[in-house]
Specification:
With about 150 residues, the chain is of the alpha+beta class. The termini are far apart. The radius of gyration is 30 Å and the shape is elongated. It contains three helices and six strands, in the order αββββαββα. It has helices spanning about 45, 105-115, 140-150; strands spanning about 70, 80-85, 90-95, 100, 120-125, 130-135.
């Protein structure tokens, strides 16, 4: 049965908070740092041994890669910041690479060579340090950055 609006109370009486139980109770895990060293049962692993001398020609080159003059960091969601944008009313498609640090000209050159683009297809915004690539090349840029180890 409904009361007319004139006879309804202005405010609904609130129930005390103690009657309600919390909806979500998350389990809390505690981790303890152990400072003791566990002894292994294998004698080969317990005793340290000196590494065998190897000649420089037998070491693979992937162990000491030359450092790149640039770095592409990830955003707070651990994703690479590569975005596709439409400009000029949707007529111009642009891919934008953000969070580039270091020598952006070298990064631009490497992207140009990897994607086989013309020099006019890439530009560096010196104010925001973003690299703009003409066209929708998000997947290609992400593949390039993944192969480079970013």
């Amino acid at each position: 049965m409904f009361l007319p609006r004139v006879l309804r109370p202005f405010a609904v009486p609130r129930a005390p908070l103690s009657l309600f139980s919390p909806r979500f109770i998350l389990p809390v895990r505690t981790r303890y740092l152990s400072t003791t060293i566990e002894q292994s049962s294998s004698p080969d692993l317990a005793t340290p041994h000196s590494p065998e001398p190897t000649s420089p020609s037998t070491q693979p080159e992937s162990q000491n890669p030359s450092p790149l003059p640039y770095f592409v960091s990830r955003n707070n969601l651990n994703n690479l910041s590569v975005y596709q944008r439409n400009k000029r009313g949707g007529n111009r498609k642009v891919t934008i690479l953000k969070n580039g640090e270091g020598d952006l000209k070298a990064l631009k050159q490497d992207i140009k060579e990897a994607l086989q683009l013309n020099d006019g297809d890439l530009s560096i915004n010196s104010v925001t340090n973003h690299i703009e690539i003409k066209g929708q090349k998000k997947v290609e840029v992400l593949n390039f950055l993944a192969t480079m180890g970013f």
